[in-house]
Structures are given as structure tokens and as C-alpha cells.
């Protein structure tokens, strides 16, 4: 196929994903009164569709510009699967609960929605770990892992799709599987085997990503940093939501986790297309600084409020809003000094080379104010360049002034 045909195919898959995800949002609006335990509201469903659309969008951009990179096509396929699953789910809820019999294929739509998420979700980590960032394996020795992952995904998908009896997933727990087979025990074994094969392949693929990072240098290392940062943010957000926010701030936790999930394809797209590639070091630095700063300030604020409320209760016998005011003033007073200290700690601990370079330049600047001998300054300057930039060779050439040349 020509480059133009490949680009047209990629954007056609994006358009199909967009239409299907939009159809899912429309069905969410039409079924807003249906007894759906999975419904989180129209706004959340629209945000979910927008987040899922990030995959085919990045996929189409990558596939149309880097035709040989398999990750672009992977994201395009994942986008279509997400779209079909979303539209099928909405179709099933609408026809089975909101307007029964209004459209055909309700059982088939419900059936599709209960298993399409398996290949859509699980192929993302395993093949991203194996193929990122150039769309190729680290070496041909990792080929069996790719085949193992494919076998695991196929077995898990087939087991879920053909399992006999009722679909089980709400709100379709009363719907009989239209494609169910009688071999229940065999299908359960296939599903379990597929799950463990998929899990093993994900672990092995993660090992290949670590090996790739250790061998990488220059731009490829920066690309891997983008992906690792997005994956770490998603993992951290998921843990915070599960441990601290579940049942307390449910919607806030879900939205933050969803946005972090959407950050993965965006980071992958930035890395592969190399747009502002080297900004990732600044992003990581700021994330470490302001993440630590936020946690510290929250702890100081809460500790201050609790301690002052206790003190006011002991003295005056009642709570006082003054505790909140004083705690806020303390936070305002310590913000900048604390930020500078956290920044210095992060630079010293994680960006040692940058920290050492700053210290060397600061020392050289202090000597520069007092030194008058040109030869000594020249030697010091060359030494500073060696220590901060670490070039293979450095020398300083001074062009003589006309007066000195005449003498």
C-alpha cells in the first residue's frame, strides 16, 4: 500500500472509533433513567469516551507519519475495539431496559460488551512493553513472548465469549449468552490458562522494556522516560484511588484515574513523534518537587488545624475558626522556603550532575569577582567547562587585541 493509502486507512479507523464512541455517549443519554448499576452519569461517560478516543487519535497520528511503527496500528485497533464495546453496551441497555424491542440484536450487543474489553485492555501493556518506542522487539529472542501474549489473549477472549449460561456482568446478568457452548469446564480451563499466559507475558514484556532502557541512549532513553512517567502516574493515581478515595470521593478518584489513563497514549505519541522530547526531564523534576511539596503542605495544614483546634478546645472550651486561619497563614509563610528546600533536595538526590554543575558555576562566579590574573582565569574557565559539560577535549583560545599584537 502507498503512504497515502496507509494514512487514509489510519484516519478511517479513527473516524470509526469516534462514531462508535459518540454512539455510546448518545445511548448513555437515552438510557439515563435505566436501572444500570454501572452508570456514572452522562458527563462521566462523555469524559470516558474522550479519554478512550486518545488511543485511536494517537494511533492515527503515528500510523500516518510512521507507517512501519506497529504501535500506531495497535492503538487504532484498540480504539475500534473500545468503540464497539461502548456502542454495544449502550445498545444493549437501551433495547433491553429503556425501550424493549425497539431495535434488533439486543442480546448480541450485550454479549459483545461483556468480552470485547479483554483484548482491548490487555493488549495495551504487553505489546507496548514489547514494542515501544520503535515498534520493534528488543531482539528476535523476544518473539516467543509476543506469540505467548497473543495465545493468552486469544484464550481469555474465547473463554469469556463462549462461556455458557447467563452473561453475568451487570446489568446483563439475566441475559443468556447467545454464543455459549455446552463445554463449560473446558472453557473455564481455557479462560484460566489464557489469563495466566497473559499475566506471564506482561511480566516478561516488562523485563524487555527494562532491558531496552538499560541499553538505550540519547533520544530513545528520553522516549522511554515519557512512557515510564505516564505509566507511573497512572499506577500512583490508581493506588491512591483504591486505597484512599474509594467510597469517600468516588467520582473524583475515578476522574483522576481516567485522566491519568488517557495520559499514557498521549505520552506515547509525544515520545514517538519526538515533539518537545527533552521536556520530560523538566516534567519529572517538577512532578517530584510539587508532588512532595503538596503532600508536605497538606500534612502541615491538617496537623496545624488539628493541633490548634485541640489547643483552643483546651483553653476556651470550644472550637475556633482561628485555627484554620492560622494554619493557612503558616502555609503561606513556609511555601517558598519549603519549595526551595525541596527543589534543592530533588536536584541533589535525582539530578546530581545538574546540582554539581550549579555549585561549580557558583564557586567560579565567586572567584571571578576577586581574580585579576588572565592566565589563572583561563585555566579556571577550562576546568569549569570540563567539570560541568564533561567534553572529550576543551581548550581556550584568546584573540590578542591590536595593541598587544603590535607590541
- Give the C-alpha Rg: 29 Å
Overall form: globular
Distance between the termini: 73 Å
Helical stretch tally: 14
- Give helix and strand order, one letter per element, not per position: HHHHHHHHHHHHHH
Strand content: under 5%
Domain unit count: 3
Report the average pLDDT across residues.
81
The counted number of beta strands is 0
Q: Structural class of the helix and strand makeup?
A: mainly alpha
User: Which spans have pLDDT < 50 for at least 5 consecutive residues?
Assistant: none
The percentage helix is over 70%
Biggest β-sheet description: none
What does this molecule look like?
The chain is mainly α and 407 residues long. The protein has three domains: 3-279, no CATH class; 290-350, no CATH class; 354-401. It contains 14 helices and no strands. It has helices at residues 3-30, 42-65, 70-98, 106-113, 117-131, 143-162, 184-215, 219-245, 250-273, 280-316, 322-350, 352-370, 374-389, 402-406. Helix 1 (3-30) packs antiparallel against helix 2 (42-65). The longest helix is centred in the C-terminal third of the chain and has 37 residues, at 280-316. The protein is globular and about 90 Å long. The termini are far apart. The relative contact order is 0.07. Keywords: Membrane, Transmembrane, Transmembrane helix. The chain crosses the membrane at residues 43-63, 70-97, 109-132, 144-162, 193-214, 226-249, 255-275, 287-312, 318-338.
Amino acid at each position: 500500500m502507498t503512504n497515502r493509502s496507509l494514512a487514509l486507512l489510519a484516519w478511517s479507523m479513527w473516524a470509526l472509533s469516534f462514531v462508535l464512541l459518540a454512539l455510546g455517549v448518545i445511548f448513555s443519554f437515552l438510557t439515563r433513567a435505566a436501572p444500570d448499576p454501572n452508570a456514572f452519569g452522562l458527563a462521566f461517560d462523555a469524559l470516558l469516551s474522550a479519554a478512550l478516543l486518545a488511543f485511536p487519535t494517537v494511533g492515527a497520528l503515528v500510523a500516518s507519519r510512521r507507517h512501519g511503527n506497529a504501535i500506531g496500528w495497535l492503538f487504532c485497533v484498540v480504539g475500534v475495539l473500545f468503540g464497539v464495546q461502548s456502542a454495544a453496551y449502550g445498545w444493549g441497555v437501551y433495547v433491553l431496559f429503556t425501550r424493549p424491542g425497539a431495535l434488533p440484536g439486543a442480546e448480541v450487543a450485550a454479549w459483545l460488551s461483556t468480552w470485547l474489553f479483554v483484548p482491548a485492555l490487555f493488549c495495551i501493556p504487553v505489546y507496548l512493553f514489547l514494542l515501544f518506542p520503535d515498534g520493534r522487539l528488543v531482539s528476535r529472542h523476544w518473539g516467543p513472548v509476543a506469540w505467548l501474549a497473543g495465545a493468552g489473549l486469544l484464550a481469555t477472549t474465547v473463554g469469556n465469549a463462549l462461556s455458557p449460561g447467563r452473561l453475568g456482568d451487570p446489568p446483563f446478568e439475566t441475559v443468556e449468552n447467545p454464543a455459549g457452548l455446552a463445554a463449560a469446564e473446558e472453557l473455564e480451563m481455557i479462560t484460566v490458562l489464557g489469563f495466566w499466559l497473559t499475566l506471564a507475558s506482561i511480566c516478561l514484556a516488562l523485563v524487555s522494556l527494562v532491558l531496552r532502557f538499560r541499553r538505550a541512549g540519547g533520544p530513545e532513553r528520553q522516549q522511554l522516560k515519557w512512557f515510564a512517567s505516564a505509566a507511573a502516574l497512572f499506577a500512583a493515581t490508581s493506588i491512591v484511588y483504591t486505597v484512599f478515595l474509594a467510597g469517600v470521593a468516588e467520582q473524583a478518584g475515578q476522574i483522576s484515574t481516567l485522566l491519568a489513563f488517557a495520559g499514557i497514549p498521549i505520552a506515547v505519541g509525544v515520545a514517538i513523534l519526538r515533539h518537545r522530547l527533552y521536556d520530560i526531564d523538566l516534567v519529572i523534576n517538577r512532578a517530584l518537587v510539587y508532588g512532595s511539596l503538596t503532600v508536605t503542605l497538606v500534612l502541615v495544614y491538617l496537623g496545624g488545624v488539628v493541633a490548634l483546634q485541640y489547643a483552643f478546645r483546651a483553653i476556651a472550651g470550644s472550637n475556633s475558626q482561628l485555627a484554620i486561619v492560622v494554619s493557612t497563614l503558616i502555609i503561606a509563610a513556609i511555601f517558598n522556603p519549603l519549595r526551595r528546600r525541596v527543589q534543592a533536595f530533588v536536584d541533589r538526590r535525582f539530578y546530581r550532575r545538574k546540582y554539581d554543575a550549579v555549585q561549580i558555576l557558583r564557586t567560579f562566579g565567586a572567584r571571578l569577582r576577586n581574580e585579576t590574573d588572565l592566565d589563572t582565569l583561563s585555566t579556571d574557565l577550562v576546568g569549569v567547562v570540563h567539570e560541568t559539560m564533561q567534553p572529550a577535549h576543551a581548550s581556550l583560545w584568546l584573540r590578542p587585541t591590536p595593541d598587544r599584537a603590535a607590541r
